[in-house]
Amino acid sequence: MSLNSRIPKFYSFSQEERRNIIASMFNFNEQDLKYLQDQEINDSVFEVMIENTIGKIPFPIGIATNFKINGKDYLIPMVIEESSVVAAASHAAKIARKKGGFTAEYSGSIVIGQIQLLTSEPFEAVKQIISSNKKKIIEIANSTNEFLVKLGGGAKDIEIRRVKGDLREYFILHLIVDTKDAMGANAVNTMLEKLQPFIESIVDCKVLLRILSNYAIKRIVKVKATFDKELLGGDEVVENILFAYDFAKHDVFRAVTHNKGIMNGITAVMLATGNDTRAIEAGAHAYASKDGNYSSLSKFEKDENGDLVGYLELPLSVGIVGGAIHVHPTYKTLLKILNVSTAEELAIVAGSVGLAQNLAAIRALASEGIQAGHMSLHARNLAVSIGAKGEEMEKVASKLIELKEITYDKALEILKKIRK
What we know:
four-stranded antiparallel beta sheet
């Protein structure tokens, strides 16, 4: 399917009009449209997903436009409650589009499963025993998931590490598993459980923890984009962005907020596609500390033309099958819009959104300031919160922006005057 993600003034349409535009582009039926509005999902779906359910809380679904990644156009569903994120990512993608959009690569769908061994045996002896039984270990692990093996995935290798704790030293067996298009937690954990008796039979040890690691260093996405200096605002804005990046690179207080901006984009895509946002966030922030100090996940530099070149590298353990994706129908509908065919493709899309969002945030900070972008939506949110209806909402919001005093009390004061 050929797709053009440039939809000029998409923001200016009503919500119903935007839904109908997307529906026509992807040949949605009436049921797909209902799932986008979250009106037809039975409570039984949520009973399956988590325990002790009492209801549900809706989040807005936005569509990021303008994205071209590895030569392909994408309309990207994002689920987030924070103002300006979808618009900012779309605008950054438009700037990158002039220079060809984003290029990205993925290192593969490899997950690490960990088995913790408690033993008094020498490390080299344990390592030798486990290494000599590598073929059997992989065979036992793969016996738990023949379907994954048929797809070309499954357990592929092992590693043995030692970890010095405060209480004692532990030997750790890493099971290296290709989970293909699944995030893979259930598959890997099942393999690790199956291996416990065998490991305890060949090594004089007690197996304690058997769990996958969310530090997915073998599932790295790398993204690059060139942002046109004129569309950014000129040479001074480029220089200011470089100063802002340098600040984030060397100061942990700034780096945390800088990386949070990256995750604004990535997490919004993960929420829209039913992926484990907590695992991805944890892995990303650990990766930011891989060199011993917490630092920026992204990098920016100026090329010979004076344009800004951005890079992003982080682990992304994602899936397009399994888990909540198969249970919640809205995830399926949003994956149709995203139009990705593999977990690898989803990872490069999410990484590209992360870089776009990061660029948009630091551009705003380095030029007009972050509040300018938030002002309009924040004013409208305040107007709604005080009970403004219909045209009242726009009048209150406009007056708040005009006065540059976006507070709850001022909004109430304005609404009272309007109603008089």
